[in-house]
Amino acid sequence: MFFRGAGYIAQGFPAPGLRRTVRHITGHNAEGRSVFLSTDCGSHHRIIGDQQALANIIYSTSETPVDMNNDKDLQHAKDHEPPMHYPQGTVLRMMDFAPGLVSPMHRTVSLDFGIVLEGEFELILDSGETRILRQGDISVNRGGAHTWRNLTGNGTMPGRMLYVLVDSKPVITAEGVELGEYLAELAPYYVRE
Prior knowledge:
Elements: E1 23-28, E2 34-40, E3 44-48, E4 53-61, H1 72-79, E5 90-97, E6 110-118, E7 120-125, E8 130-134, E9 138-142, E10 146-150, H2 152-155, E11 159-167, E12 171-172, E13 178-179, H3 187-190
Antiparallel strand pairs: 1-2, 3-4, 4-5, 5-11, 6-9, 6-11, 7-8, 7-10, 12-13
């Protein structure tokens, strides 16, 4: 369950106290030379919870391998805010967390790489096991149910994580039980029709 930090992110990206980040997208000119196509802060920003977290979609793809010809991937990423993850695709999402925020327990059917960009976070698994991650630390979450707690400044400062979500085959336990996606209170922000 979300708690603390209600109303913290009122103006959008970036969250108060965190740096503005810029993405640079490259492509090719008519001669095939690499060029910069755009420099911005991302196409999609979404405030989550009671203004407690902010998702910045850096990029997403809806297929693997990615078709970059005629800028097909660029157009899709610009025109479509992704779900939590794309079947057969990828999502690169940066999250700003309010001070002391605890995310809902959730599971995705994806391979998730979580990188601490700014701050300190506790990763809590549904088994009760925990780990503390600091700036530069990385989690490799293989479909596990989990929650994040922002510990930055003893819970008094915002923090930032970067997530790369890659689609996976269904996760099945040794007993043959399929562990499906469970988003809890996050569902309204990521489930797409």
